[in-house]
């Protein structure tokens, strides 16, 4: 039986585009349009005994530097920054139960029950207006009240039933990028950024790719559109791998969100493909963080010589407009790093050939 005949669901852009138009209309009606903007920071949660190793690895293999380390109660935070990018907060020791526990308990993720890139946090210019409009839409937040962190105000959604991710918003009261409240203390740590040939060559967090089940592609994208100022931009189908890579963008924001899903769900499980297999093994979650560079030709081999393992070769070319590679997943965060360089006026995320090679390579994890 072929997958096509056996399919119990098949994704198509027509249905998604119709529903996306309705979400945009709702956003306008409720005054949400333009209330939030680009990605401000992401929060990666780790196990307590891997917290420092996770931050050390990010310091070594990205262009982000350590700008703060603090502890509030039991919760420890490293703040990593590159001036052209969203910040990365690496945390452990969350007080209270883990709202992500269920989505973290899959065959290849259950050994790290607290580990996940949990939250994508966007700039918001009026967090109260945002909360009120989202409550009207029926959105449930993790806390009833807006969290007062001191230098900023913060609110986050409950983990999505489709992506396992939470969307947060932040309103900075003074300087952008200050997170530490008065009750926090310095976190003693010997961490620092090592000097490497690529330390200054890796820059912006360009996009994050989240993998979801085929049947959750549309609701995942629509939910994300409702919580942010992003819109569905386009999708690339790779039928031979039963995979769709979907891109959501927001005006001139530098950050893009990518959703990868299966195309079809078959009754028999035949023709599953690497994307569906990933979700079965790890649960829906962020697969990779992509970092921009202008020197991938020199940097990629240097990273390999340094011992960073890779799932893929360096694929693409200057003529294609893009070159990119996937590292192996980190044992501390389960996250893959993508390194990406664009050439000329190419502003995409992959070519059809690259996305096929990269999706195929991710079948190895
Ligand atoms: Fe990517």
Overview of the molecule:
The chain is an alpha+beta fold. It has two domains: 3-30 and 197-362, 2,3-Dihydroxybiphenyl 1,2-Dioxygenase, domain 1, CATH 3.10.180; 36-186, 2,3-Dihydroxybiphenyl 1,2-Dioxygenase, domain 1 (Roll), CATH 3.10.180.10. The protein is built from eight helices and 19 strands. Helix 2 (13-29) runs parallel beside helix 5 (217-227). The longest helix is centred in the first third of the chain and has 17 residues, at 13-29. The two termini are 28 Å apart. The model has no long low-confidence stretch (mean pLDDT 94). Fe (ii) ion (FE2) binds at residues 207, 209, 258, 288, 290, 338, 349.
Q: Briefly, what is this?
A:
With 365 residues, this protein is an alpha+beta fold. Helices cover 23% and strands 32% of the residues. It has two domains: 3-30 and 197-362, 2,3-Dihydroxybiphenyl 1,2-Dioxygenase, domain 1, CATH 3.10.180; 36-186, Roll (2,3-Dihydroxybiphenyl 1,2-Dioxygenase, domain 1).
For this entry, give a set of tags.
nine-stranded mixed β-sheet; 8 helices; 2,3-Dihydroxybiphenyl 1,2-Dioxygenase, domain 1; eight-stranded mixed β-sheet; alpha+beta; 23% helix; 365 residues; binds fe (ii) ion
First-to-last CA distance: 28 Å
CATH level 4 superfamily of the largest domain: 2,3-Dihydroxybiphenyl 1,2-Dioxygenase, domain 1
How many structural domains? 2
Query: What CATH first level of the largest domain would be assigned?
Result: Alpha Beta
CATH topology of the largest domain: 2,3-Dihydroxybiphenyl 1,2-Dioxygenase, domain 1
- Second-tier CATH architecture of the largest domain: Roll
Number of helices: 8
Largest sheet: 9 strands, mixed
Number of strands: 19
Which compounds are bound in this model? fe (ii) ion
Low-confidence stretches: none
What is the strand content? 25-35%
């Amino acid at each position: 039986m072929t997958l096509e005949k056996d399919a119990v669901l098949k994704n198509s852009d027509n249905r998604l585009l119709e529903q996306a138009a309705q979400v945009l209309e709702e956003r306008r009606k409720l005054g949400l349009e333009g209330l939030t903007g680009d990605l401000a920071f992401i929060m990666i949660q780790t196990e307590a005994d891997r917290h420092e190793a996770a931050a050390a690895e990010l310091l070594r293999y990205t262009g982000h530097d350590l700008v703060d380390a603090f502890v509030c109660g039991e919760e420890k935070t490293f703040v990593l920054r590159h001036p052209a990018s969203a910040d990365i907060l690496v945390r452990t020791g969350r007080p209270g139960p883990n709202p992500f526990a269920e989505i973290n308990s899959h065959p290849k993720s259950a050994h790290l029950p607290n580990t996940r890139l949990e939250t994508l946090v966007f700039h918001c210019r009026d967090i109260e207006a945002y909360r009120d409009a989202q409550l009207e839409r029926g959105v449930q937040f993790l806390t009833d009240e807006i969290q007062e962190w001191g230098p900023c105000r913060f609110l986050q959604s409950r983990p999505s039933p489709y992506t396992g991710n939470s969307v947060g918003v932040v309103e900075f009261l003074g300087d952008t990028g200050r997170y530490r409240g008065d009750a926090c203390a310095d976190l003693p740590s010997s961490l620092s950024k090592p000097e490497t040939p690529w330390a200054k060559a890796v820059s912006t967090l360009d996009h994050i790719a989240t993998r979801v089940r085929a049947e959750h592609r549309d609701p995942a994208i629509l939910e994300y559109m409702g919580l942010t100022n992003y819109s569905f931009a386009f999708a690339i189908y790779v039928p031979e791998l039963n995979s769709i890579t979907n891109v959501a963008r927001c005006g001139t924001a530098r950050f893009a969100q990518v959703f990868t899903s299966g195309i079809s769900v078959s009754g028999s499980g035949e023709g599953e493909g690497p994307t569906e297999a990933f979700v079965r093994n790890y649960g829906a979650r962020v697969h990779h963080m992509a970092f921009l560079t202008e020197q991938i030709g020199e940097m990629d081999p240097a990273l390999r010589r340094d011992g960073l393992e890779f799932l893929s070769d360096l694929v693409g070319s200057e003529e294609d407009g893009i070159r990119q590679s996937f590292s192996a997943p980190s044992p501390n965060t389960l996250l893959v790093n993508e390194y990406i360089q664009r050439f000329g006026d190419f502003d995409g995320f992959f070519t059809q050939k690259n996305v096929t090679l990269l999706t195929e390579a991710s079948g190895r994890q």
